[in-house]
Amino acid sequence: MNIYIGSDYRGYEKKKVLLGYLSGSDFGVIDMGAYEYVEGDDFNDAAIAVSKAVREEPGSRGILICDSAHGVTMQANRFKGIRAAHCDSVESAKLAREHDDANVLCLSAHFLDDKSMQRIVDSFLKTGFENLERRVRRINRLDEREDYA
C-alpha cells in the first residue's frame, strides 16, 4: 500500500518527522509537498495533490498536515471518493477507519506532538474497515453530490 503525505508550511517540520518515521515501514511513502518551507504557502496545494493521488490509486491512503487540520480536511473532502478525517487521538483514527473507511488522515501541527502523531498514524494505518451493510450504505451516500472535483 502506498501512503501519500503532504503539508503546508505549518506542517512541514511534522511531515519531515513522519516521513522519517514511516521510512522503515512496509508501506510505499510518497512525499507530495511542500518540498521546502515557504512561509505562508497554501494548504490547498498539498491537499489537492494527496487527494488526487489517493483517488487514483484505490487502497492507498493519505496523510495531510496543516496548522489546525481543518483546512486540509475541508479541501480533501471536496473530492469524490475521498473520506478525509481530522483525527486528534488514536481512538478517533481507529473509528475513522473502522466506521467510515477514511482514506485520508488529517493532523494538526499546532495541537499534536511528534509522538502523538506517530501513534495516531499507526492506528490509522493498522485499522481495517468494518464492512457492515449500514457502514457501506452510509459511505456510498457521501458521494451523492454531482459537482465534485
Detailed description of the structure:
Helices cover 44% and strands 16% of the residues. The chain has 149 residues and is α/β, with parallel strands linked by helices. Helix 1 links the parallel strand 1 (2-7) and strand 2. The longest helix is centred in the first third of the chain and has 14 residues, at 43-56. The radius of gyration is 14 Å and the shape is globular. 36% of the residues are buried. The mean pLDDT is 96.
List the helices and strands and how they pair.
Layout: E1 2-7, H1 12-22, E2 28-31, H2 43-56, E3 61-66, H3 70-76, E4 84-86, H4 90-100, E5 104-108, H5 114-126, H6 133-141
Parallel strand pairs: 1-2, 1-3, 3-5, 4-5
Helix pairs in contact: 2-3, 4-5
Q: Top keywords for this entry?
A:
alpha/beta; Ribose 5-phosphate Isomerase B, Chain: A; 5 strands; 16% strand
Helix content: 40-55%
Would you identify the regions where 5 or more consecutive residues have pLDDT less than 50? none
**Rounded average pLDDT:** 96
For the largest sheet, list the strands in their spatial order: 2-1-3-5-4
Taking all Cα atoms into account, the compactness measure Rg is 14 Å
CATH architecture assignment name: 3-Layer(aba) Sandwich
CATH class category name = Alpha Beta
What distance lies between the first and last C-alpha atoms, to the nearest angstrom? Answer: 24 Å
The shape, in one word, is: globular
* CATH fold field value: Ribose 5-phosphate Isomerase B, Chain: A
Number of separate strands? 5
The total count of helices amounts to 6
Pairing-aware structural class of the strands and helices? alpha/beta
Sheet-strand content, in percent, reads: 15-25%
| Largest sheet descriptor | 5 strands, parallel
* H/E topology pattern: EHEHEHEHEHH
| Multimerization status | single chain
CATH homologous superfamily grouping: Sugar-phosphate isomerase, RpiB/LacA/LacB
Domain tally:
1
